[in-house]
Design a protein that fits this description.
Layout: E1 5-8, E2 12-16, E3 21-25, E4 30-34, H1 36-43, H2 45-48, H3 51-57, H4 62-74, E5 78-81, E6 100-108, H5 115-123, E7 127-136, H6 141-150, E8 159-164, H7 171-177, E9 183-187, E10 211-213, H8 235-240, E11 251-254, E12 259-261, E13 271-272, H9 278-283, H10 285-288, E14 316-319, E15 322-325, E16 331-332, E17 337-338
Length: about 350
């Protein structure tokens, strides 16, 4: 140990909060809390000196430092090495292969919107993921929905999710819709007896999307839920969160009236599909303004240790030179506790 350096794995990151710090392991999708004193050692002394030199520098802390660093090594957050130069820090520059990440479209067949043409326009934006939320469908709903899905066959979409406000298709129709392995279905408002668990091995195809049923009510205007169980601890999310608000970045939504928005429940409308080009609206600086507001720039969020793991699609407001989230998060970084929001 005397001639070895302590190092975090490249995919483990130290994130500081107002009261508490955490180590985020983006490989195993987990985090642990860590003392401020140990955080300071990891950021400074342990980066420049061997373990032996650090223990000699802080003799009164030696036993505690050995125990804490030993625990981090045992839990696979860190390791010892004689060649720290061979383990450079990871480049956190954000890049994406698609122009945009996600499009969310509310489909109401009772409206006058030409959905086949709308889908064609949506795909022209070059997105990776598409979520279609069906609010109302005609009696021959399978044919109408299948017609929309057929337009995706030659697209570069990675994932297509179909949400139904209530159960409206029989099992055979649902199976046909998910014959494209990129397509998954979720039905809301199903009887409790119809709730199915996700089964990634269905039909022996590992990773195949499943048909999910839930008794929950689909609430497009419902406020977002926060908590440890809602965090995204992946590397891609962590990198994106360095410079962007992940719940809004590279995303656009079209509501049941054809309005183009950053998020369905946000009040700001940037255009309408009946009169505006989706490509032009989404490419405008005005539409993309809030994409660039990372949590590091948002009051309260900037002091939260979970700011790079939080997926928040709250609207943002600017007061003077400061940004704020419109919706209240249930974590208080100054008290270091989750709170109930009335």
């Amino acid at each position: 140990m005397n001639g070895e350096y302590f190092a975090l794995y490249a995919n483990v990151f130290l994130v500081e909060g107002a009261v508490e710090n955490i180590l985020v392991d983006t490989h195993k999708h987990r985090y642990i809390t860590i003392r401020k004193t140990i955080s300071a050692l990891i950021k400074n002394d342990l980066k420049k000196a061997t373990m032996g030199e650090v223990l000699k520098k802080y003799p009164n802390w030696a036993e505690g430092v050995k125990a804490y660093t030993g625990y981090l090594i045992e839990e696979d957050f860190a390791f010892l090495t004689k060649e720290p130069h061979k383990f450079p820090e990871m480049d956190l520059a954000y890049k994406r292969p698609y122009d945009l990440d996600t499009a969310i479209v509310v489909v109401n067949f009772g409206s006058t919107i030409d959905y086949p043409s709308l889908m064609e326009a949506v795909l022209n934006v070059n997105i990776q993921n598409l979520l279609l939320i069906f609010k109302s469908v005609p009696e021959l709903c399978f044919e109408a929905i299948d017609a929309l899905i057929s337009g995706f066959k030659q697209s570069s979409l990675v994932a297509i999710q179909l949400y139904f406000e209530r159960p409206e298709l029989n099992g055979e129709a649902l199976e046909k819709l998910t014959s494209d392995l990129r397509v998954s279905v979720k039905e809301f408002g199903s009887p409790a007896t119809a709730i199915l668990e996700d089964d990634p091995d269905r039909d022996g195809l590992v990773g195949r999307p499943t048909i999910r049923k839930t008794s929950q009510v689909l609430q497009l205007e419902a406020l977002q839920e926060y908590g440890p169980e809602h965090m995204n601890l992946s590397l891609s999310h962590f990198i994106e969160a360095q410079k962007h608000v992940t719940g809004l970045n590279a995303k656009f939504c079209i509501d049941a009236n054809g309005n183009i928005k950053n998020e369905l429940r946000h009040p700001t409308i940037f255009g309408n599909v009946s009169s505006d080009s989706i490509v032009e609206v989404v490419a405008s600086a005005n539409f993309q303004t809030k994409w660039q507001v990372a949590n590091d720039l948002v009051e309260k969020c900037k002091d939260c240790q979970f700011r790079y793991s939080c997926y928040s699609n709250s609207d943002l407001k600017k007061v003077g030179n400061q940004w704020y989230k419109v919706e209240a998060c249930t974590f208080n970084p100054y008290k270091n506790q989750w709170e109930r929001v009335e």
